[in-house]
Design goal:
Number of helices: 19
Number of strands: 25
Strand content: 15-25%
Enzyme class: transferase
Organism: Sinomonas cellulolyticus
Family: Belongs to the disproportionating enzyme family.
Largest sheet: 8 strands, parallel
Pfam families: Glyco_hydro_77 (PF02446), MalQ_N (PF21226)
Structural class: alpha/beta
Strand order of the largest sheet: 20-17-14-13-12-25-24-21
EC number: 2.4.1.25
Helix content: 25-40%
Length: 695
């Protein structure tokens, strides 16, 4: 039995599966044998018998020797990088690179003293080749040929560091953070849309904002009912047509009178919902939009528009065709393939327009999109990308201080080996689509590019383990695609991680994330001057209540009502009060809040908190729109599904009244908070220019 247990754990280590981890209380937790067997099974590694495990260990050792070339090679620009070629011992082999532009670059063979070994009955040698250091950034092809053998494989040259980050070094920039579906206007159909996004960007730019960071806009189901969570999409590559502004599609102007009247009628029926503070109804909005969009789709397109549509389809390639085919199957609409392709084209057009509006209004970055961790298992990606997703497991998070029972996000993870063997094509294509019309991308749980918490089916969230990924490849490809798009990258690097991870991301030019409530130096709030520079810093995040609610301890009461606490609510409230008192004490030390100021004056405290983050060196500062208008309700409570109305809270003010985009320019609280941020940044900039130092 001991032998089988050790074989199991060695096999897990060989395949990047953690056999232990540090729990959130600081204790070492051993991973159970049942979890290891299930996770290895999801990786396709047999664990039934000791003999099977010994064979699996041998197979993992011989796997690279069985290939003439590696399945994929990812290197950094200008680095000394070797490629190993495997051929029958004594055979000659040559290796070269064909770059994206068609030029050939020979690789130089160098000495290699690895001994030949017998592989499947053939004595096999290993030849080492040094890749040219002057290879350009991009996706190239590695070739090998010798003695009747030939092979080719992808070669990806990535930036040493993302160069777009350098443009943020001259000054601090701030922007708005918003859940787009919750931000409505008089023209919305009950849910915020891409027209609203353009207007929000224009309003923010007028106030001095340089970006708008929005929730993931990934596609959901092709027909109602829709999944409410933007972080549980059906695909991460394509856009949710729920966000379309029907009236902004060019062909809307050419609808026949009867059809135009019907579209206008559909819109009018939903407009009263824009001013309601009740929960959002995505299904009603999407059902009406689908009917209207079907009418607009049937309008003949001009030759120029037809050409633009054809070009979009050609650029999107097979991925778009697969997605449209899945939509047809899922929606049961026989004539719908072109309809679903067309929806993505008009989504793309409206995203492009919103980004142009942001930049044209004066924003230096524009739209920052959010990339969810994964997709739902029964969606389009689960169907089309099943060859590179792992089955029988989902991803989530181990127990931590904010969810003491752990979390199951119900998403299948990338299969590390199969994704690499595919040349990371699906990952690359996903990034390219999201970055088409963006000045930046926020990567939710970027730690997942290093390791993900895998939970076997039928197990509790705490009964999982970490599976490690080739972060050099995943982070490198992210940097490459962002650099080509001229975009910055923000990694949401909160939670449990190894200390070197943040240093590595900074080295690659990836910005981190700091949330005021999470930054500590021992048992004291971290001094703002000690924050990271390469970072997006904010007071709030969508997984916490708006700051007004947080100051009142509503995050504790909500978790208590949902049964998510592992200790008495009185202890949790006491800890929350101590945390808030510590931060308020820092505000008073810095002269941002008078001694006599009461926490009941929430607007004053919130403005002081945002002034505090301007004291950090962080290059980006995020202002949550909910904080700017006084919203109190929690948008999302992690670890819940139907227990709390996650992702259905519309934007409302301190009195619970809906706030529309048209009202923002004259909204007193909105203007006051943004003025406080601008003034504090201007004062600090003037102080630096005058040679003064921070306290």
């Amino acid at each position: 039995m001991a032998d089988a247990e050790e074989l199991l754990r060695e096999l897990a280590r060989r395949h990047g599966v953690a056999t232990w981890f540090w729990g959130w209380g600081g204790s070492r937790q051993e991973v159970g044998a049942g979890t290891l067997r299930s996770v290895l099974g999801a990786l396709g590694v047999p664990t039934d018998t000791p003999e099977a495990m010994r064979q699996a260990l041998q197979d993992s050792e011989l796997a690279p020797w069985r290939r003439l070339l590696p399945a994929v090679t990812v290197v950094r620009e200008g680095a000394d990088a070797q490629v190993l070629a495997h051929v029958p011992h004594g055979s000659r082999v040559s290796v070269w690179v064909v770059a994206e532009d068609g030029r050939e670059h020979p690789a130089r063979q160098v000495e290699n003293h690895d001994e030949a070994r017998t592989v499947d009955g053939v004595l096999t040698g290993r030849a080492a080749f040094l890749l040219p250091q002057d290879l350009p950034l991009g996706w190239h092809t590695l070739h090998a040929r010798g003695d009747g053998l030939a092979a080719e494989a992808p070669l990806v040259v990535t930036p040493q560091a993302l160069s777009t980050t350098g443009r943020l070094e001259d000054s601090q920039r701030w922007g708005l953070m918003a859940q787009l579906y919750s931000v409505r206007s008089q023209r919305s159909w009950g849910v915020g849309d891409l027209g609203d996004l353009a207007d929000l960007a224009a309003v923010g730019a007028e106030q001095g904002a340089d970006f708008v960071l929005v929730n993931p806009l990934h596609a959901a189901e092709p027909k109602p009912p829709l999944e409410d969570s933007p972080y549980l999409p059906t695909t991460r590559r394509f856009v949710n047509p729920l966000y379309l502004r029907v009236e902004d599609i060019a062909e809307f102007a050419y609808l026949p009178p009867a059809e135009r009247s019907r579209v206008e009628e559909l819109g009018r029926a939903l407009q009263p919902a824009n001013s309601s503070s009740e929960l959002l109804d995505r299904d009603a909005a999407y059902a009406a939009k689908l009917e209207a969009l079907d009418l607009v789709w049937r309008v003949p397109r001009s030759p120029a528009r037809e050409h633009a549509y054809a070009r979009f389809r050609a650029e999107a390639g097979r991925g778009l065709e697969d997605f449209a085919r899945w939509c047809v199957l899922a929606a049961g609409r026989e004539d719908g393939a072109d309809f679903y392709r067309w929806l993505q084209w008009v989504c793309d057009e409206q995203l492009a327009s919103a980004h142009r509006t942001a930049l044209g209004a004066g924003m230096q970055i524009g739209l920052i999109h959010d990339l969810a961790v994964g997709v739902r298992p029964d969606g389009a990606d689960g169907w089309a990308l099943s060859d590179v997703l792992a089955a029988g497991v989902t991803v989530g998070a181990p127990p931590d201080m904010f969810n003491q029972q752990g979390q199951n996000w119900s998403q299948p993870p990338w299969h590390p080996q199969r994704l690499a063997e595919s040349g990371y094509a699906a990952y690359r294509d996903m990034l390219r689509t999201i970055l088409r019309h963006a000045g930046g991308i926020r990567v939710d749980h970027i730690l997942g590019l290093f390791r993900l918490w895998w939970i076997p089916e039928g197990h509790a969230p705490g009964e999982g383990t970490y599976v490690h990924y080739d972060h050099e490849a995943l982070v490198g490809i992210l940097a490459l695609e962002a650099q080509r798009a001229g975009a910055v990258v923000i990694g949401e690097d909160l939670g449990v991680f190894e200390p070197w991870v943040r240093d590595y991301l900074a080295e690659r030019g990836i910005l981190g994330t700091s949330i005021l409530w999470f930054e500590y130096d021992g048992d004291r709030p971290l001094a703002p001057e000690a924050y990271r520079r390469a970072c997006l810093t904010s007071v709030n995040t969508h997984d916490l209540p708006p700051t007004a609610g947080y100051l009142a301890g509503e995050h504790v009461r909500l978790r208590e009502s949902l049964g998510l606490l592992e200790r008495p609510v009185s202890e949790e409230l006491e800890a929350a009060r101590a945390e808030i008192d510590g931060v308020v004490g820092l505000l008073r030390e810095r002269g941002l809040l008078p001694e006599g100021a009461d926490l009941a004056d929430e607007q004053r405290v919130i403005e002081a908190l945002y002034r505090l983050i301007t004291f950090t060196p962080s290059c980006l500062l995020g202002v949550a729109l909910v904080d700017a208008v006084g919203e109190r309700r929690t948008q999302n409570q992690p670890g819940t599904y139907r227990e709390h109305p996650n992702w259905r809270i519309p934007l409302t003010d301190a009195e619970g009244a809906a706030v529309l985009i048209e009202e923002l320019p004259d909204h007193e609280r909105f203007a006051s908070l943004l003025a406080a941020v601008r003034e504090s940044l201007a004062q600090r900039a003037a102080g630096r220019q005058g040679g003064s130092t921070d306290e």
